[in-house]
Amino acid sequence: MIRLIASDLDGTIINAQNFCDPSVPETIAHYRGRGVRFAVCSGRPLDSVKPLLSGWGLENLADYIIGSNGGEVLEVKTGKRQSAYLLEPEVLRDIIDIYEPLGLIPTLYDGMTLYVSKKTEEAEVVARRVGVTAVEADVRAMTVKPELKEMFILKPEQMAEAERYAASHPDPRFNGFKTAVDLFEFSHPLLAKDVGLRIIGAMMHITEEEMMAFGDTTNDIEMLEYVKYGVAMENGTADARAAAWATAPSVNEKGFARFLRAHLSDTLEVIP
């Protein structure tokens, strides 16, 4: 029996136009009415996710919010928060020193403002997408406390080279990975979205066999592999699809809702 449904946002239930199809909240409400709990999972800081939910029709449907790629968890009803696996400021500054010269734009995101070392068209696009203002600043000098991640903005055509460089220059202090076509991020090597699900599992007293999760890209892989029923979107990356138990239709084809209606009964049993 499924007791928790977790979903990534961008590319999974939110499309490239920042639109959530009405079938998503309708389907979530349907299964919540039958006892399942729902969690949204994002690479964004936790405090920046909650204000966005109302625009997508999800404000009263998320029982849990996982932010910062698994590093933060909010139990909405109680306001209880937990966090895990922060990067120390000296490590964050080292990452900036390595990757900024490659043409990537370091950022510092406090949930309200996106500070960027260089204000470019790409930076403006990312800021609009997350609903905040981009402000040019000395990000390296501002990096003085532990953070859950270091996020870089880049042009999509730079992504392949960023991935190649990170793969050929591993560092035991951090992992680097693509989280969107224009975002490359670094986090603690033990941090991934499955960490957030493990925290929620402890809160709910359930196991991964009672969870279903949806995602679309590389930073969703650990989450898709951790739960018994990991579902990748057809529009997702090849590595995410390879890690999943099943594939749902594209986010542009109401894939989340269509998959759940076809594969989860009203008694919350999985239909193969």
Written overview of the protein:
- With 272 residues, the protein is of the alpha/beta class.
- It folds into 2 domains: 154 residues, HAD superfamily/HAD-like (Rossmann fold), CATH 3.40.50.1000; 99 residues, Hypothetical Protein, Haloacid Dehalogenase-like Hydrolase, Chain: A, domain 2.
- Helix content is 30%, strand content 24%.
- It has 10 helices and 14 strands.
- Strands 5-4-3-2-1-12-13-14 form an 8-stranded mixed sheet, sandwiched between helices.
- α1 links the parallel β1 and β2.
- The radius of gyration is 18 Å and the shape is globular.
- 47% of the residues are buried.
Based on the model shown, name its key terms.
8-stranded mixed beta sheet; about 270 residues; single chain; 10 helices; alpha/beta; 2 domains; Hypothetical Protein, Haloacid Dehalogenase-like Hydrolase, Chain: A, domain 2; 6-stranded mixed beta sheet; about 25% strand; Rossmann fold
Task: Give a short synopsis of this structure.
By secondary structure, the chain is α/β, with parallel strands linked by helices. Helices cover 30% and strands 24% of the residues. The chain is globular, with a radius of gyration of 18 Å.
